Amino acid sequence: MSISIPEEKLEDFFKRFGNDNEDRRLSKQELKDAFDSLGSRFPAWRAKRALQHADANGNGYISDQELDSLVKYAAKHGIDKGCGRTSGRTSIKALTEEQLKLLFMRFDTDGDRRLSRQELKDAFNSLGSRFSAWRAWRVLCHADANGDGYISEQELDGLVKYCVKHGYAKK
């Protein structure tokens, strides 16, 4: 699902992100923050693509003169609000952190009190993630503190923190 925002509102929105610096240019990080604020599924990717599309002089920033191209890009491609996490299921944002911990531990199918990549994939699939294998890999990169390829009970808070950051639960 993509939402449509009028161009004049998008222009004002992007200008706010560039106004905190003296040169009034938008950096890649400011674009990422803007797209994240708009609810984009992949704000870093969206920022990179916006720069490729709108940065006419190739300096890595969107200036006032390039803002129109940025706004047209954002308006044409929409802001991807439907993040693919729900796939028509009940909203997972209703889960608390504790409920999320319990849900993940239900997927500990071998009973070793740690979650393998496959168990994580199955859990993310149950949450409606379209990219459950990718999510499992990413959460291991973020939360597997000892690097053993599993999420232990001690690392579960890191898993939940990742899930909260990416909209799978409320704070």
Strand tally: 2
Q: What spatial order of strands do you see in the largest sheet? A: 1-2
How many distinct helices?
Answer: 8
Unreliable stretches, pLDDT < 50, 5 or more residues? 81-93
Helix content: 40-55%
CATH topology of the largest domain: Recoverin, domain 1
Give me the CATH superfamily of the largest domain: EF-hand
Number of domains: 2
Q: Overall mean pLDDT score?
A: 80
Structural class computed from helices and strand pairing = mainly alpha
Distance between the termini: 24 Å
Shape: elongated
Q: What is the name of the CATH architecture of the largest domain?
A: Orthogonal Bundle
The first-level CATH class of the largest domain is given as: Mainly Alpha
Proportion of beta-strand residues: under 5%
Largest sheet: 2 strands, antiparallel
Listing every helix as H and every strand as E from the N terminus to the C terminus, the arrangement reads HHHHHEHHEH
**Rounded to an integer, what's the Rg over CA atoms?**
19 Å
Keywords: Calcium, Repeat
Organism: Acer yangbiense
Domain EF-hand: 5-41, 46-77, 95-130, 142-166
Protein name: EF-hand domain-containing protein
General description of the model:
The chain has 171 residues and is an all-alpha fold. The protein has two domains: 7-77, Recoverin, domain 1; 92-165, Orthogonal Bundle (Recoverin, domain 1). It contains eight helices and two strands; from the N terminus they run αααααβααβα. It has a two-stranded antiparallel ribbon. Helix 1 (7-18) packs across helix 4 (67-77) and helix 7 (132-143) packs across helix 8 (156-165). It is elongated. 27% of the residues are buried. Pfam families: EF-hand_5, EF-hand_7. This is EF-hand domain-containing protein. Residues 5-41, 46-77, 95-130, 142-166 form the EF-hand domain. Keywords: Calcium, Repeat.
